[in-house]
Amino acid sequence: MHKSFHFRHMRGTMTGMTQMLPAPGVEVATPGHSAAPPGAGDLLNLMLDGQPRTRADLIELTGLARSTVAGRIEGLLSVGLLQPSGQSRSTGGRPPTRFSFNPQAKLVLAADFGVTHGRAALTDLTATVLAEEVADLDIAAGPEATLGWLVEVADRLLASVGRTRADLAGVGIGLPGPVEHQTGRPVKPPIMPGWDGFEVSAWVAQRLGTPVLVDNDVNLMALGEHSVAYPHVEHLVFVKVATGIGAGIISGRHLHRGAQGSAGDLGHVQSPRGSDALCGCGNYGCLEAIASARAIALEIDPDHHAVADASRVVLERLARGDRAAVAAIRRAGRDIGETLASCVSLLNPSVIVLGGALAGGAPSLLAGVREVIYARSLPLATGELSVVPAQTGEHAGVIGAATMAVQQFLAPASVNAMLANPMAHAAHAAHAHA
Ligand SMILES: [Zn+2]
To answer: How far is the CA of 270 from the centre of ligand 1 (A)?
Structure first.
């Protein structure tokens, strides 16, 4: 798996390097305005590209005094986030030691819940999956049954790689509905009875003894796809086409959640084609009501009422060359393209990624989307625009969930806090065993 990391651009001396991306949610130090000198967390963020460096390299990069750099390296070594990494060539005398970021210092538990399935993965601090488990789950069974499964799986996955709960840096969870990211609570999720207002973060944090972040599944797919495949792209829109339709927006390399966390709710935009189709949200003519796998499945097989396997039903018909299915998928692609053409005008992304179960199995959907976007948008907006299939496939959600947790754990402020009080950190982790 491709490793991707983002770190702060601290000084102009780094301009020869390729990865100088601010982590989403992390303030970028403005030259001339930074009040505090770079702390241990900033120093660690410089090392997230995986390149080994000597003390002298870090003194040059940060402009800090030799003793300060030595102290910060000691602190990072003591918590395992840096490790000695061989010696560099020297022209004479004892060769200087090099240090590198240790992505295995801690692990992250990532979960991606759909309507009918759950996927839990254990990753390292580069969001690389080390172990995973997938299960058929009914999200409508409620939060305690669903999250209880995750807590059980956490211990099995940790045991499978010879680690314990004390090794967890955090947990990231994606849910198939609107989530208030600040509090980790689902907000009136239409297909998740029993979840409205449930304290997902607190419930899991209490049981696993580690910080827990929660977000909407499509936001996390956007984050995962961006960090793995497009880390240098500023503006990207990820569109999930499956049972439902939704989008995640990366703007200025940050996940754009909007004021209430509902940005990217593409499925419930009124489709220009217009329709008297009743949507699950109660409105008529939503994009989701005419172009989702559920809508297509109902159209080509009116007797088919199962919601959960709508993508599979449509893909099976396509595989058989069913003409109604082929026509429906092309038209769905054009419908999605119509709505996305408005997004292109509004957001001017350079990459639109199509993912989700239906998009992943039906390349002709992408053809329909492209056809309309390029026809409807102005040349300035489409000149550099790529409309492409997702690369992370079914792992987009867990990679995004892991990325979210890792970014919080490795944010300079949290690293500094950890080093300022390592005993509290250790005690917190030990508490999880109780
Ligand atoms: Zn709707």
So the answer is: 8
Chosen CATH of 107-210+396-431 out of 3.40.50.300, 3.30.420.40, 2.40.340.10, 1.20.120.80? 3.30.420.40
Dist. CA 396 → ligand 1 center (Å) = 24
CB 168 within 8 A of CB 109: yes
Using the mean position of ligand 1's atoms as its centre, give its distance from the Cα of residue 267 in Å: 6
Bigger pLDDT: 259 or 342? 342
pTM attached to this predicted model? 0.84
Distance 287 CA to ligand 1 centre (A): 7
Ligand 1 centroid to residue 242 C-alpha, Å: 14
246 alpha carbon – ligand 1 mean position (Å): 11
pLDDT tens, residue by residue, 234-283: 999 999 999 889 999 999 999 999 887 788 889 999 997 867 888 888 89
Q: Tell how far the Cα of 208 is from the centroid of ligand 1, in angstroms.
A: 36
- What residues pair up with 173 in beta bridges, in sequence order? 111, 214
Do residues 172 and 403 lie in contact, with contact meaning Cβ atoms separated by under 8 Å? Answer: yes
DSSP string, 369-415: HHHHHHHHS-HHHHTT-EEEE-SSGGGHHHHHHHHHHHHHHHSHHHH
Q: 268: CA distance to ligand 1 center in Å?
A: 4
Confidence of residue 424 (pLDDT cuts 50, 70, 90): low
